Recover the amino acids of this structure.
C-alpha cells in the first residue's frame, strides 16, 4: 500500500471513529432514558400507557442504532465546489456547537443521490466518489472514482461500463452467499436508484430478468419510502408480500440492516387474520381457486345459503305457557329474503332485516288470530248506517281488538323465541367466511349449484374435508367471502391484541404439537388437539403476552385487520399472484400506491401473470408505470448464455438481462444411468461444497424427487436442509424450483431438467428460474436427454 493510500485511509479512519463515537453516545443516552422510563411509576392508566409507548420508542431507537453498526459509513462525495459529504445508513449531526452540522448523510436523503447517480458524463457536481470499505469499525479499503473528465487520471473504464463503484460492487457480487440476503445500499446502481426513489403514488411495475436486483430494489424502496414519507407510512404501514416463508426468511435481514423494522412481511397465505394457511394442495387445484370466476361461485354459494323453503314451515312457540304452532309460508320467507337482499348490506348485517320481516309475518299471524273481533260484522253495519262518529275510521273496524302495545309485546316475545330464531338460522344463517368456503368444498351438491361453470372434474378436485387447515389459494377466497358476509368491519384494539396473542399461541401450540406428533394443521378451531395444545402455554409465555400488549404498531394492527388500508404495498415475485389474490391485495390498498416487482418470464404458478397489462387493467386501467432493470448482478455470463436458450424457447421476443461479469467457469452437464443418479448426486454435492468453501450449495430437483433425493443427500452430508421450511443458512439445501424462487446459491446442482419441464405447463419457466439461481457454478445431472432448449 502506498503512503498516499495509507494516509487517506488513516484520515477516513479518524472520521469513522468520530461517527462511531457519536453513535455510541446516542445509544447510551437512549439506553439511560429507557432505564429511567421503565423505572418510572405511572399512577393513572394514561400515564402507564404513555410510559409504555415511550419505552417502545426508545427500544426501537436502540435497535436502529444497533442495526447500523456494520457499514455505518460507506461513501463520500467531494464536490467541485470543495464540499465533502459522507454517506451512510443513518444521518448523524454535530449538535455540540449549537448548529446542526451533518457528519453523516442518510443514503435516502436527496443530498446523497449524486453518490448513486453521478457519472463522468453527468457528474451532478461530484468530482470524486469514494466507496469506503470497512470490517467492523476499521477501514479496510478505499475505492475512488474521479468523475472529472478534465482530470488526467479519470477512471474512465469504470464509468464507461456504466457501473458505479465497480470494485466495491464486484466484491459484493463475488462474496460467498450466507443464506440470508444482504442489503446493497453501498452499491445501488443508477437504474436501480431511479426505481427506489420513484414517487410514492400510483402503481409502479418493476420488470426485470433474473438477478437484476428486483428483490433488493423492492426492499430498499420500502426503506426509502418510510424515510421520505415517514408520517404517512408509519400510521398506514407498508406491506411487503413475498412468495413463501423460505423467501421471507431469506430477505428478513435486509430491512433491519437498513434500520427499518415497521414493515409487515408476509405471503398472501398470511393475509387473512385468524388463518394460517400451510396446507398443501396440487397446483391444478390452486389454479382453479385463483380464477376470477370464484367471485361468482362464492356469491352463488352464499345465495344458496339464503334458503328458500318449498313448503310451509311449522314453528312451535310458547304463548303464556301453551304450545302453539304457527306456519311460515314459502311466500313469506321469499318476501323476507327479498327485503333483506334489497338492503344491499353484507349478508350477516342483512340478517337483522330478514329476521325482522319473519318476526313481522309471524306477529301478524298471531295478532290476526287472537285479535280477531267477533262483533266485526255488527260494527261494520253500524258504521255503514251512519254512526260514523263513534269510530275513528273504517280500517279499524273488525281488524283487531289488540292495540299497538299488545302487538309490540307479541313481536318482542317472538323475536326471542328459540324456534323462530332457529328457523331464521336455517333460512338466513349468520356465517363466518370459513364456514361458507369450507361448507362449499365439503358438499358436492353445493359445488354443483354454485359452480356450474366449472367442469365436473374441476368441481371434484375442489372437494375436501373441512378439517386439515387452509391452503394459500384459499385465503383470497376467504377474504372474498368475508367481503360478502361482513364488508368492511373495523376491528378494535382488543381484537388486534387478541389476534397477536392467537398467533403467538398458535406458534407455540404448533411447536408443541410438532414435537408430539409431527406437523399437523391447527386451523380447525374445533380440533380438540388445538385446545389441548393451547393449554400448554406457560407463565413465561404469558409474561411475554403482557409485554406485547403495551405497544401496538401500525404494522401489527394491520396484520390483524382484514380491512386495513395500507399506505403502500410492495409485491415481490408479483407474476405469481392469481387474479383472486390480486383482488385481495387491491382491497388492502385503495390508494393503489403499489410497487410490483417481477418477471413474467419466470411465472411458475398456473394462475400467475402472463402480462402486466392484463393483470393490472381491472384495477388501474392503463395508469401504471413500468421501470425495467436490465443488468444481471447474480448469474455469470457463462451460465446466463445457457439460460438465454431456455428464455428464447419461452418467448423469443424477450431478451435476457446482461450479466455484469464472467467467471471463466463453464456450466456442465452429465448424463448418468438412472440407478447411479443418487450416488452421483451425493458425490457432486461433496465436490461442490468443497468448491463453495463457506458458501452455499443449492440442489434443485423435480417436485416429486425432493423427498428421496433430499433424504439421500442429507444422510450422506451433514448439515443438509431439505424442502419447504429448510434453513437456508445450511451449507447444502435441497429444494424444488418453486421453493427456490427468488433465492440464490454459490453453486447449483440441477437434477433432471427434463422432468422439471414436463412437470408443469409452466415447466420451461421453472427451468429458466432453476438455471439462474447460481452466483458462481452450475452443474446438471440427468438420466434422460436434456431438454432441447438447454444447449451446453
Ligand atoms: N447494486 C447492487 N449491488 C450489489 N449487489 C447487487 C446489486 N443489485 C443486485 N445485487 C445482488 O444481486 C443478486 C440478485 O438480486 P435479487 O435477488 O434482488 O434479484 P432479482 O431480480 O429479484 O432476482 P430473481 O428474479 O432471479 O429472483 C443479490 O445477491 C443482490 O444482492
Amino acid at each position: 500500500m502506498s503512503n498516499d493510500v495509507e494516509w487517506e485511509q488513516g484520515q477516513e479512519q479518524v472520521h469513522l471513529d468520530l461517527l462511531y463515537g457519536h453513535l455510541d453516545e446516542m445509544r447510551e443516552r437512549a439506553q439511560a432514558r429507557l432505564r429511567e422510563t421503565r423505572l418510572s411509576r405511572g399512577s393513572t392508566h394514561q400515564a402507564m400507557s404513555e410510559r409504555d409507548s415511550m419505552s417502545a420508542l426508545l427500544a426501537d431507537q436502540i435497535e436502529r442504532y444497533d442495526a447500523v453498526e456494520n457499514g455505518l459509513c460507506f461513501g463520500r462525495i467531494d464536490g467541485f465546489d470543495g464540499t465533502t459529504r459522507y454517506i451512510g445508513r443513518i444521518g448523524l449531526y454535530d449538535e455540540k456547537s449549537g448548529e446542526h452540522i451533518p457528519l453523516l448523510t442518510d443514503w435516502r436523503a436527496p443530498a446523497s443521490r449524486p453518490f448513486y447517480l453521478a457519472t463522468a458524463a453527468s457528474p451532478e457536481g461530484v468530482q470524486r466518489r469514494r466507496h469506503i470499505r470497512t470490517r467492523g469499525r476499521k477501514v479496510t479499503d478505499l475505492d475512488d472514482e474521479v468523475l472529472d473528465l478534465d482530470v488526467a487520471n479519470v477512471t474512465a473504464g469504470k464509468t464507461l461500463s456504466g457501473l458505479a463503484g465497480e470494485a466495491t460492487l464486484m466484491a459484493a457480487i463475488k462474496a460467498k452467499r450466507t443464506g440470508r440476503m444482504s442489503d446493497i445500499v453501498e452499491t445501488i446502481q443508477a437504474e436501480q436508484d431511479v426505481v427506489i426513489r420513484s414517487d410514492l403514488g400510483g402503481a409502479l411495475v418493476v420488470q426485470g430478468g433474473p438477478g437484476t436486483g428486483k428483490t433488493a430494489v423492492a426492499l430498499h424502496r420500502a426503506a426509502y419510502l418510510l424515510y421520505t414519507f415517514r408520517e404517512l407510512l408509519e400510521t398506514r404501514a407498508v406491506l411487503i408480500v413475498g412468495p413463501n416463508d423460505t423467501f421471507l426468511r431469506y430477505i428478513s435481514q435486509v430491512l433491519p440492516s437498513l434500520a427499518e423494522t415497521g414493515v409487515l412481511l408476509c405471503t398472501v397465505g398470511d393475509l387473512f387474520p385468524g388463518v394460517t394457511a400451510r396446507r398443501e394442495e396440487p397446483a391444478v387445484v390452486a389454479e382453479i381457486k385463483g380464477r376470477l370466476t370464484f367471485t361468482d361461485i362464492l356469491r352463488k354459494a352464499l345465495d344458496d345459503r339464503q334458503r328458500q323453503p318449498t313448503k310451509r314451515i311449522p314453528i312451535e312457540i310458547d304463548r303464556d305457557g301453551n304450545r302453539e304452532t304457527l306456519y311460515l309460508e314459502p311466500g313469506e320467507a321469499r318476501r323476507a329474503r327479498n327485503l333483506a337482499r334489497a338492503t344491499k348490506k353484507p349478508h350477516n348485517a342483512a340478517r337483522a332485516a330478514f329476521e325482522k320481516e319473519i318476526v313481522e309475518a309471524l306477529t301478524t299471524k298471531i295478532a290476526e288470530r287472537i285479535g280477531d273481533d267477533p262483533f266485526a260484522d255488527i260494527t261494520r253495519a253500524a258504521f255503514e248506517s251512519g254512526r260514523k262518529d263513534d269510530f275513528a275510521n273504517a280500517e279499524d273496524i273488525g281488524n283487531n281488538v289488540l292495540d299497538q302495545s299488545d302487538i309490540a309485546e307479541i313481536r318482542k316475545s317472538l323475536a326471542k323465541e328459540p324456534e323462530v330464531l332457529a328457523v331464521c338460522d336455517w333460512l338466513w344463517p349468520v356465517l363466518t367466511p370459513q364456514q361458507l368456503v369450507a361448507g362449499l368444498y365439503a358438499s358436492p351438491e353445493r359445488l354443483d349449484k354454485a359452480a356450474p361453470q366449472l367442469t365436473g372434474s374441476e368441481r371434484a378436485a375442489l372437494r375436501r374435508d373441512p378439517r386439515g387447515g387452509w391452503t394459500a389459494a384459499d385465503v383470497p377466497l376467504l377474504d372474498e367471502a368475508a367481503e360478502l358476509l361482513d364488508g368492511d368491519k373495523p376491528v378494535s384494539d382488543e381484537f388486534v391484541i387478541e389476534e397477536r396473542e392467537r398467533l403467538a399461541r398458535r406458534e407455540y401450540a404448533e411447536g408443541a404439537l410438532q414435537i408430539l406428533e409431527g406437523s399437523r394443521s391447527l386451523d380447525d378451531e374445533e380440533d380438540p388437539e388445538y385446545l389441548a395444545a393451547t393449554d400448554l402455554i406457560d407463565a413465561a409465555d404469558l409474561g411475554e403476552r403482557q409485554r406485547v400488549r403495551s405497544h401496538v404498531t401500525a404494522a401489527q394492527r394491520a396484520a390483524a385487520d382484514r380491512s386495513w388500508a395500507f399506505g403502500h404495498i410492495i409485491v415481490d415475485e408479483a407474476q405469481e399472484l392469481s387474479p383472486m389474490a390480486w383482488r385481495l391485495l387491491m382491497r388492502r390498498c385503495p390508494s393503489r400506491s403499489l410497487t410490483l416487482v417481477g418477471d413474467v418470464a419466470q411465472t411458475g404458478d398456473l394462475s400467475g401473470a402472463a402480462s402486466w397489462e392484463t393483470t393490472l387493467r381491472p384495477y388501474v386501467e392503463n395508469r401504471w408505470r413500468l421501470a425495467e432493470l436490465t443488468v444481471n448482478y447474480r448469474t455469470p455470463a457463462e451460465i446466463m448464455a445457457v439460460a438465454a436458450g431456455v428464455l428464447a424457447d419461452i418467448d423469443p421476443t424477450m431478451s435476457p438481462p446482461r450479466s455484469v461479469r464472467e467467471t471463466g467457469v463453464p456450466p456442465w452437464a452429465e448424463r448418468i444411468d438412472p440407478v447411479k443418479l443418487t450416488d452421483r448426486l451425493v458425490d457432486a454435492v461433496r465436490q461442490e461444497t468443497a468448491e463453495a468453501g463457506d458458501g452455499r450449495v443449492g440442489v434443485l430437483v423435480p417436485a416429486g424427487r425432493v423427498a428421496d433425493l433430499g433424504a439421500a443427500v442429507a444422510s450422506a452430508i451433514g448439515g443438509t436442509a431439505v424442502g419447504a421450511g429448510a434453513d437456508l443458512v445450511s451449507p447444502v439445501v435441497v429444494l424444488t424450483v418453486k421453493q427456490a424462487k427468488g433465492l440464490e446459491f454459490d453453486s447449483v446442482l440441477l437434477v433432471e431438467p427434463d422432468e422439471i419441464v414436463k412437470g408443469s405447463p409452466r415447466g420451461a419457466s421453472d427451468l429458466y428460474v432453476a438455471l439462474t439461481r447460481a452466483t458462481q457454478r452450475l452443474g446438471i445431472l440427468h438420466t434422460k436427454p436434456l431438454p432441447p432448449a438447454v444447449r451446453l
